[in-house]
Amino acid sequence: MYDIFKTSITTQISALSGVSAEIVEPAVGVSNNMANGDLTLTVSRLRMKDNPTQIAKTLAEQWKADDMVTGAEAAGPYINFRINRTVLTRSVLQTVHATGPKYGWTNEGAGKRVIVEFSSPNIAKPFHVGHLRSTIIGNFIYKLHKAHGWDAISMNYLGDWGTQYGLLALGFERFGTEEELVADPIKHLFDVYVKVSAAAKEEAEHIEAMDADAAAAAGPTIQDQARAYFKSMEDGDESALALWQRFRTLSIEKYKQIYARLGVHFDVYSGESQIGEGMSRAIQMLTDTGLLIEHEGAKLVDLTEHKLGKALMQKSDGTTLYLTRDIGAAIERYEKYNFDKIIYVVSSQQDHHLKQLFKTVELLGLPYADRFEHVNYGLVNGMSTRRGTVVLLEDVLHESKEKMHDVMRANEAKYRGVADPDHIADILGMSAIVIQDMAARRIKNYAFDWSRILNFEGDTGPYLQYAHARLCSLERKAHVKVNPDADVSLLTEEVTCDIINQISLYPDILAASIKSLEPCTVVQYILKLSHSISSAWETIKVCGEADDVAEARLLMYWSARTVIGNALTLLGLEPVEAM
User: Fold this and answer.
1) Which of 112, 125, 355, 405 is catalytic?
2) How many C-beta neighbours within 10 Å does residue 510 have?
3) Is 128 marked active-site?
4) What is the pLDDT of residues 266-320, one digit of tens each?
5) pLDDT tens column, 162-211
6) Position 427 pLDDT exceeds 90
7) Going by DSSP bridges, is the β-strand pair 39-42/78-83 parallel, antiparallel, or unpaired?
8) 125 given a catalytic annotation
9) If 0-12 CB within 10 Å is exposed, 13-18 middle and 19+ buried, where does residue 295 land?
10) 72 φ, ψ to 5°?
11) What is the SS3 assignment for 264?
């Protein structure tokens, strides 16, 4: 939004100083303190020989005001510029009105493709809150790339292969029921897995207490049978694969219900099991390049010189491992999608694994080895139910919704006016969880705090939704309509200038976010904008004002509401219009 003013400053400063426009332009930025000026030139970045403070003084004295930039004042080694506020305000508000939900979007990624792999739960394990972080951060990164013109593909790489599925199949024979499987596959399979794992542990402890002869005569253990079952899956046994496929299909259908509630869509449901020839090709490539070495019947890659230890690729029984399948997946994905970038949204606990993967791909000499990126994040502590036990993600979402519903019911008058209170409570509950999660840098661990997220004031998800809903209410009650041609020269108050400045910065926020891939950049921005609107609420009124003043103010508030709504959508949340 400031580009036209930066261009005016760059042109005149270049002419006055003799410094090329290519050097001047990046030296001009938005001021940190608008009280001193709107834009600031850092003179030292002009690379001139004389003292920067003296140069600033001289250039400020020589500056000629025009219709765009009305004044210049030296401040030490800086020059602060005042711009034509009416021109800025008109440009900002008309641009927001014209572009609406695509305000701030760019074509920076046009012609480029990115795969964002995120969520990726393990079918044999609970869909827990750790997957929430990957899911919402990954969804943000996916949406952010689309906003910058990338051809983005959202991929869910399910943990659906491995020895645990042999264990799960044995467990289902012992502890599973068809009715419970169909009713809630994720929960039932997890319960089965817990029971069979406990049985295997108890058996192992029992055998350990036996003498050698008795242990040998005991026959195959549960773990032995599980390994054999998985080996039969890898060898293509139809009955074994049929049961596994049923587990997988039912689980995906349940996942889709949870993702729909979170507003998350996946273009591709992949998984370790879907990796075909890529796996055997990976082993062959590792062998041909001399990277693969044998050790006690197993095969591994020695990455110790890169401080990454030894990476096991194939067990002594011939079964593959997670890393082998990831290499095979990388090969197949590039051949199928020809990506320019692939982003793995995985917790910091997997830093070592991803480093091993990326290094191995690099050592294989694959031409796309530099296109891999790991976006990591910290852990959530203290997320539990009232009973104090760790729960499935769906249980957390349900409890958050109920808590929000309780808060809404406390105000009976407002509650009666909400069209679909159950749906609104669900959105508020998810907003509370998502904004608390995204408020700080993603690498930080944080403590989940029920009491904090219930607050409709302060830096919370419900507060942001309330700010959006209140602006929607203002528009419904106003006696004038949103008019992009309103006389914005009437917006002269300090607080309105602050709001306009913040609205104008949203494209810069999106530009910064695509570089850092930090949701907190967007969260902190809309929190600040919402606080500014709250500060203006009592003094900058629309209702009861003259039509021209009301139109100007309504256009500003409408633009702010649009930006908050856009940002919430980018964060994966549905903006509410009444609550």
Assistant:
1) 125
2) 23
3) yes
4) 999 998 888 878 888 988 999 999 999 998 888 999 999 999 999 999 888 777 7
5) 788 889 999 999 999 999 999 988 889 888 988 998 899 998 888 887 77
6) yes
7) antiparallel
8) yes
9) exposed
10) -140, 140
11) coil
CA distance 570 to 146: 10
Question: Residue 506: which H helix or E strand, with range?
Answer: helix 506-516
Please, are residues 372 and 358 in contact by the beta-carbon 8 Å criterion?
A: yes
260: Cα within 13 Å, side-chain hemisphere: 6
Q: Which residues of 232-257 are buried (b: 16+ CB within 10 A; e: fewer)?
A: bbbeeeeebbebbeebbebbbebbee
pTM for this predicted structure: 0.88
Who contacts 18 (Cβ-Cβ below 8 Å, separation ≥6)?
Answer: none
pLDDT band at 385 (very low <50, low <70, confident <90, very high): very low
Q: Across-strand partners of 73?
A: 80
Q: Does the annotation mark 468 as catalytic?
A: no
Percent of the chain with pLDDT over 90: 64
Burial 182-214 (b: 16+ CB within 10 A, else e): eeebbbbbbbbbeebbebbeeeeeeeeeeeeee
- Which among 131, 143, 401, 468 is annotated as catalytic? 131
Q: Which of 6, 57, 128, 401 is catalytic?
A: 128
> What are the structure tokens assigned to 324, written together?
């082998």
Joined tokens for residue 85:
């506020």
CB 314 within 8 A of CB 283: yes
